[in-house]
């Protein structure tokens, strides 16, 4: 890709890596970047050789929010016609696990993008928040809903209504991120985690992700029934037979995604 690309992508064995690439504006998320990101996500999701997707920003900023200059003078009608959040809906349809490597600012749309990922490995320097209230608006890409589900009403109200940032330590304690590591190791640790996940059965990975996300949309009884059906479904795969045989034979399984 060229240096002007808004995202950069590469593959590392069974991991598809995407980096946000607007360093001059701290990876601010404009519609063009989000479109390119969604397209690359979908490409990796449709590639049988890729089992896990790793999404990263820079050491200074994962993404410092939406591109304010891009919409500051927009009218209600213009925002409605633009329908910029339709692109975000494409992320919900990604079936493969997404690991986020987060360092520095993860604010506004950056926080909302982070919450669309499945496992978040954060640098100890991470600052996470929804400061839209400071510029006369509120979260619009899921912040009020996903943050509340992740950390509860009290913390969500505090973060959204005051605009304050959570430190990496606070975010970990609140259940918003998965792990915190030293700044110099955040990307390598995220890549290690992605590779560890990619070594598992690809079908089981996708269905397990599906089942966890279902918990946010259903009652407990409905979720348990859905989980059970997916569990039984895996017994029609070659990977299930290989995984259990390998366990009994005390060897590493060789999954094929079949």
How would you describe this protein?
The structure is a single chain. The protein is α/β, with parallel strands linked by helices. It folds into two domains: 7-198, 2-enoyl-CoA Hydratase, Chain A, domain 1 (Alpha-Beta Complex); 202-248, Orthogonal Bundle (Lyase 2-enoyl-coa Hydratase, Chain  A, domain 2). It contains twelve helices and ten strands. Strands 1-2-3-5-7-10 form a six-stranded mixed sheet, sandwiched between helices. A four-stranded mixed sheet has the order 4-6-8-9. Helix 1 links the parallel strand 2 and strand 3. Helix 6 (143-151) crosses helix 7 and helix 10 packs antiparallel against helix 11. It is globular, with a radius of gyration of 19 Å. The two termini are 32 Å apart. 35% of the residues are buried.
Structural class: alpha/beta
Architecture per CATH nomenclature, i.e. the level-2 architecture of the largest domain: Alpha-Beta Complex
Poorly predicted ranges (pLDDT <50, ≥5 residues)?
A: none
Q: What percentage of amino acids are in beta strands?
A: 15-25%
Number of domains: 2
Enter the CATH topology name of the largest domain.
2-enoyl-CoA Hydratase, Chain A, domain 1
How far is it from the N-terminal to the C-terminal residue, by CA?
32 Å
The CATH C-level class name of the largest domain: Alpha Beta
Mean pLDDT: 94
The largest sheet, given as strand count, sense and whether it forms a barrel, is:
6 strands, mixed
**Number of helical stretches of at least 4 residues:** 12
Number of strands: 10
Radius of gyration: 19 Å
Helix content: 40-55%
State the shape: globular
CATH homologous superfamily designation of the largest domain:
2-enoyl-CoA Hydratase, Chain A, domain 1
**Widest sheet: strand ordering:** 1-2-3-5-7-10
């Amino acid at each position: 890709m060229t240096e002007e690309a808004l995202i950069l992508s590469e593959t590392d064995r069974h991991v598809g890596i995407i980096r946000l690439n607007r360093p001059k504006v701290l990876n601010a998320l404009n519609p063009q970047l989000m479109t390119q990101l969604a397209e690359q996500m979908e490409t990796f999701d449709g590639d049988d050789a890729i089992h896990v997707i790793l999404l990263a920003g820079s050491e200074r900023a994962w993404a410092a929010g939406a591109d304010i200059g891009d919409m500051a003078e927009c009218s209600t009608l213009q925002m409605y016609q633009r329908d910029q959040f339709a692109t975000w809906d494409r992320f919900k349809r990604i079936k493969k696990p997404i690991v986020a490597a987060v360092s520095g600012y993860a604010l506004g749309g950056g926080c909302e993008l982070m919450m669309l990922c499945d496992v978040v490995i954060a640098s100890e320097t991470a600052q996470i928040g929804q400061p839209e209230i400071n510029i006369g608006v509120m979260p619009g890409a899921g912040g009020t809903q996903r943050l509340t589900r992740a950390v509860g009403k009290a913390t969500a109200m505090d973060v959204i209504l005051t605009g304050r940032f959570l430190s990496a330590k606070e975010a970990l304690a609140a259940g918003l991120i998965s792990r915190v590591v030293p700044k110099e190791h955040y990307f390598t640790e995220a890549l290690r985690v992605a590779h560890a996940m990619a070594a598992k059965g690809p079908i089981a990975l996708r269905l397990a992700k599906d089942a966890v996300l279902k918990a946010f949309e259903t009652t407990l009884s409905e979720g348990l029934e859905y989980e059970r059906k997916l569990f039984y479904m895996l017994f029609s795969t070659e990977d299930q037979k290989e995984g259990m045989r390998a366990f009994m034979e005390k060897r590493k399984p060789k999954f094929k995604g079949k």
